[in-house]
Amino acid sequence: MGYQFPGAEWTAQFHEELNKSDAYANAAKHWEGDIFLIIEEGGAIYLDLWHGHCREAIYTTDISSKQPEFKITANLEKWRKVLSGKLDPVQGLMTRQLKLDGNLVKIMKNVKAAQEMVRCATHVDTAF
Amino acid sequence: MWFFNSPEIVYGEDALGYLEELPGQKALIVTDPVLHKLGFTDRIQHHLQKAGIASTVFAEVEPEPSLQTVQQGAEVLRNLQPDWIIGLGGGSALDAAKAMWALYERPDIEAETISPTFRLGLHKTKLIAIPTTSGTGSEATWMVVLTDLAQKRKLGLGNRELMPTIAIVDPILTQNLPAKITADTGIDVLTHAIEGYTNNFRNDFCDGLCLKAVQLVFDYLPRAVANGTDDIEARERMANAATIAGLGFGNSYAGLAHAMGHSFGAYYKMPHGRTVGLFLPYTMEFTARGGLSRYGDIARFIGLTDSRDEALATAGLVEEIRQLERRVEQPTTVGELDIGEEDFMAALATIVPNAEIDNGILAAPRMPETEELQQLFEYAYWGRKVDF
């Protein structure tokens, strides 16, 4: 049994994985900005990311509770593909399978960080 | 889900005559001052006149077009409100025309934010791209490369709606291209085709296009460079190769050689094709060492080898590329470019971070760490075989 995605426990595990990853810390050392990963069927994961460190990770069902710089929205099936490494997150954004509210250019300048972030997520034992 | 976008492609001798069949009343020709002075715009205007289309010329596009020029051009479009925008030139003029089109119809956005993530909703006008070099393939891509003068770096932008409506690929326009530019741009085609075939976003729709373009470059680039005006067949096949490679890599992606070439070229103000081609063999060696390449397919397709040994086939292809580059007098090391070692090593403090954030890197099959990228540049300076 894995941690249910999306959910508070999954988010806590993801938070832990992010902060113990040297690869993510290095790749995201220039990143400043918070982000909402929004699941269309309900729920969202808020991440406050700062210079390779995740300062806060919260699961919420109220997407008006935060106003982050970036919002990435997709249905559960698309998130499942991202988290299983079957959909490259940048390719997903470029093809609008993941909908972005925010500046893509800033994300594309930090592609390695995005990829390491996904790698951290794949380390979480996930149940859908 | 992925997409395959293409313009209507009119190609071969007399393709320019298609302009006479266009509907509409007004056109803006976007080009550079040199082509305008050489009479290329007159030739286009002559055909447009036969179609009853009044044309205006915006001949302000500089090599590596800046954000400022594009904004200026968009203002001209707003005043003219043409039925057609006609980009005429190398990649700079064509890319500038695309960006002007976007800013004309979407004055609410900044050029830097043009990306595939949202709909531009373009509907007022259409774009015809007419290449005068056989290189960038910009006539068949929706990508735009602009230069941020203040930050000395290139901006890779794009949106699928910026695919030209029509591409007119007429070899008459490249017939008199000087040998140096023929070589610079031809090596660009090769880089597009190889990276288009091997990057992480490669796909079934693009593979065949990329392989064919590689074959055409090996067969016809030396002839186009050596024979110049006298070899119209070589000119035509290279023009086709550029557009085919544009379709191939434009519908998949580029790779590490583009990231390195963009960053290096922006710093030292060198032609795009020359710089991406210089770094291509090094990035291939690096990628192959990660066990992530498909270079063997290319080597076999062009008849270099029958071997299924990927390392052997890659080494053969890398050597063949270097030989081609030497044959058309392209540099194979940074050291050949009259750049002092001390100056280059100091410049890497800017070049490496800019290469790391260049979007060419995002689909690289083997993504280098910062130290590896630094090393790749250093190896390219001395011409060392990549061994890491």
Supply the key terms.
heterodimer; A: about 130 residues; alpha/beta; 6 helices; globular; B: about 400 residues; 6-stranded parallel sheet; two-stranded antiparallel ribbon; 13 helices; 8 strands; about 10% strand
Task: Describe the protein.
- The complex is a heterodimer of chains A (128) and B (388).
- Helices cover 39% and strands 27% of the residues of chain A.
- A five-stranded mixed β-sheet of chain A has the order 4-3-2-5-6.
- Chain A is an alpha/beta fold and 128 residues long.
- Chain A has six helices and seven strands.
- With 388 residues, chain B is of the alpha/beta class.
- In chain B, the strands form two sheets. Chain B has a six-stranded parallel β-sheet with strand order 1-8-5-4-2-3, with helices on both faces. A two-stranded antiparallel sheet of chain B has the order 6-7.
- Helices cover 50% and strands 11% of the residues of chain B.
- Classes of the chains: A alpha/beta (128), B alpha/beta (388).
- Chains A and B meet through helix 4, helix 5 and helix 6 of A and loops of B.
Low-pLDDT stretches of chain B: none
Number of strands of chain A: 7
Q: Tell me, what's the shape of chain A?
A: globular
Uncertain spans of chain A: none
User: What is the H/E string of chain A?
Assistant: EHHEEEEHHEHHE
Distance between the termini of chain A: 10 Å
Oligomer class:
heterodimer
Largest beta sheet of chain B, briefly? 6 strands, parallel
Total helices of chain B: the number is 13
Q: Beta-strand level of the residues of chain A, as a percent range?
A: 25-35%
Largest sheet of chain A: 5 strands, mixed
Elements of chain B, N to C (H/E): EEHHEHEHEEEEHHHHHHHHH
Rg estimate of chain A, integer Å: 13 Å
Mean pLDDT of chain A: 92
Largest interface, C-beta closer than 8 angstroms, per-chain residues = A-B, 20 and 20 residues
Specify the structural class of chain B: alpha/beta
Going across the major beta sheet of chain A, what is the strand order?
4-3-2-5-6
Helix percentage of chain A: 25-40%
